[in-house]
Amino acid sequence: MTEETRNFIAGAWQDGAGTVENRNPSDLSDVIGHYAQADAAQLDAALAAARAAQPAWGATGPQKRHDVLMAIGTELMARAGEIGTMIAREEGKPLAEGKGEAYRAGQFFTYFAAEALRQLGQTADSVRPEIEIDVRREPMGVVAVISPWNFPVATPAWKIAPALAFGNAVIWKPANQTPASAVALTEIIARQDLPEGLFNLVMGPGGEVGQRLVESAQVDAISFTGSVPVGRRIAAAAIGNMTKIQMEMGSKNPMVICDDCDLDLAVAHAVTAAFGGTGQKCTAASRLVVQEGVHDAFAEKLVAATEALRVGHALDEGTQIGPVVSEAQLANNLDYIGLGRSEGAELLCGGTRLERPAEGYYMAPAVFAGTDNTMRINREEMFAPITCILRAGSYDEALHMANDTEFGLTAGIMTRSLSRATHFRRNARAGCVMVNLPTAGTDYHVPFGGRGASSYGPREQGRHAEEFYTTVKTAYIHAGTPA
């Protein structure tokens, strides 16, 4: 790598048409590096290389695919400390979370290494005599992966790993806020025995490189994680080429706090769900729907727990909340604080920019009370260390309030009642439901995704991933009558 770190295109590291500067949000004096920005010609070269390389990989046996993915995953897990430190340094999540993300990324690759060996077809007898039927899955072809900055290694891992496991080529466009993590993962993948051009890292602005990528007829499938407005633009672009799409977008996740719950456990899980990763998670609990009987006690305990959180440099021991990712994100967060107040919500704590020894984008986690679902702070995804308490009377009212959203990614309930937990699990309009757990925190071997404006297309992760990364072929074979 040079001082201006490059893209990886057609099997080679290449300079870009320009660069972007990458600074540590915990310490703005720390310049991590300068990272290449691709232009249209480089993207087109990556697409051509991927298209040329994919047939050979698609014809490669499952043992080879397994071995490649296992090597990637094993190295990621072995280097979780190093890569996790880089994640914390450039994205701002506390070091322990960064290390955990890097290790989880490795688990995605080792899981899908095993899935490469489980690609079993089906056979059937035809309703017509002397005809047999073979049903199997084949690669989609070239997959575009567009990933966000909040999980800069784990999210691309759960997209890239199944894409490779099922025989596809990959064009990866990561978020510009976290290029160092993208380069670290690419270096590991690039060392594997893959056809030249099968995997490409193309960093660049979304409005140019990203838009050209999703509009390309050379792309067979697009897996995207990001905001709803961008997702809608991708869908509109993709439909012109009938490109298969999988999108995980916004959320407004509720956690229902029932009057029969373990209150201390509810507070602990609410704090984790609302403020883990500085609230910059699509699974964060930004709406806490609290029953009347425990409302005041819960709010008091929540404020005390929130104010006790240690906000600091992501690499410092003891830091529980790091900085937000950028100046623009911080400004947006503080705008939502102002909006909540203007809507009549009561700010119980936090919501201010914090000064720390190193200049960075630090914010005190905020709790609003006296809110309802008509307020924009309860309708829009803030992606911030901000959570809102809503007061509910009955359990039925709490469930209705939880479901009153265009989103439907995760939903949680805190209760000692098996009947309430069962009813909520069956009636919450969300793709993932958590009972006596934070809304954030999912496993890699089961499907992940939501409904409504949260997700579109086939589920991610687990065995359900094959639905997106493969296409089904049904073959009819007439063997004839034996002589």
In short:
This protein has 483 residues and is α/β, with parallel strands linked by helices.
How would you portray this structure in words?
- The protein is of the alpha/beta class.
- It folds into two domains: 4-249 and 444-475, Aldehyde Dehydrogenase, Chain A, domain 1 (3-Layer(aba) Sandwich), CATH 3.40.605.10; 253-435, Aldehyde Dehydrogenase, Chain A, domain 2 (3-Layer(aba) Sandwich).
- It has 14 helices and 23 strands.
- The protein has helices at 40-58, 62-78, 80-91, 95-116, 154-165, 179-190, 206-215, 228-239, 263-275, 292-307, 327-342, 395-403, 418-427, 466-469; strands at residues 4-5, 7-9, 12-14, 18-24, 27-37, 122-125, 131-139, 142-146, 169-173, 199-201, 221-225, 244-248, 253-257, 285-291, 346-349, 353-354, 362-363, 366-371, 386-392, 410-414, 432-435, 455-456, 470-478.
- The strands form six sheets. A seven-stranded mixed sheet has the order 15-18-19-14-13-20-21, with helices on both faces. A six-stranded mixed sheet has the order 10-9-8-11-12-22, with helices on both faces.
- β13, α9 (263-275) and β14 (285-291) form a beta-alpha-beta unit.
- α2 packs antiparallel against α4 (95-116).
- It is globular, with a radius of gyration of 24 Å.
- The relative contact order is 0.14.
Helix fraction bin: 25-40%
Mean model confidence by pLDDT: 96
Strand-residue proportion: 15-25%
Number of domains: 2
Cα end-to-end separation = 66 Å
What is the CATH domain class of the largest domain?
Alpha Beta
Poorly predicted runs = none
**CATH architecture type of the largest domain:** 3-Layer(aba) Sandwich
Q: Give the CATH H-level superfamily of the largest domain.
A: Aldehyde Dehydrogenase, Chain A, domain 1
